[in-house]
What we know:
Blueprint lengths: L1 E5 L2 H14 L5 E5 L6 H11 L14 E5 L4 E6 L6 H6 L11 E5 L13 E7 L5 E6 L10
Parallel strand pairs: 2-5, 2-6, 4-5
Antiparallel strand pairs: 1-7, 3-4, 6-7
Helix pairs in contact: 1-2
Amino acid sequence: MIRIVTHSPEETIAAAEKLGKLLKAGDMIAYKGGLGAGKTTFTRGVAIGLGLGDNVTSPTFALVNEYRGEHINLYHFDMYRIENGDDLESTGFYDYPFESNVAAVEWSENIEEFLPRGTIYVTINRIDENEREIIIEDGERFASAWD
């Protein structure tokens, strides 16, 4: 487990960018954190780390936003309104080529039982207006990057 405390949105983006540079095709990030925790801000950093730029917006109304790169894509899901397997199926979730891309899932608690083995869990706790505690659970895969 990796624990990071950031003091600004820019620091949150920088931490996520570091993680994004370490991700590979087939990785799935499952976010946990309340409204305004910084999940979309973190995803912006992941996209930068993957070389996809910073034009990341919340997928709340679209359910999924796709950020396309030359070699890898990022699928950014919002599962806030998903309540069961049938709801998940109706989003087209299973139609995405996860094995050759990266996915980031907001409100992952709602679909936890459907997430693949090896999912990277990122919990973002809002401490105050700018400060965040970020916990990355990855089976120690990225631990040396934060030593």
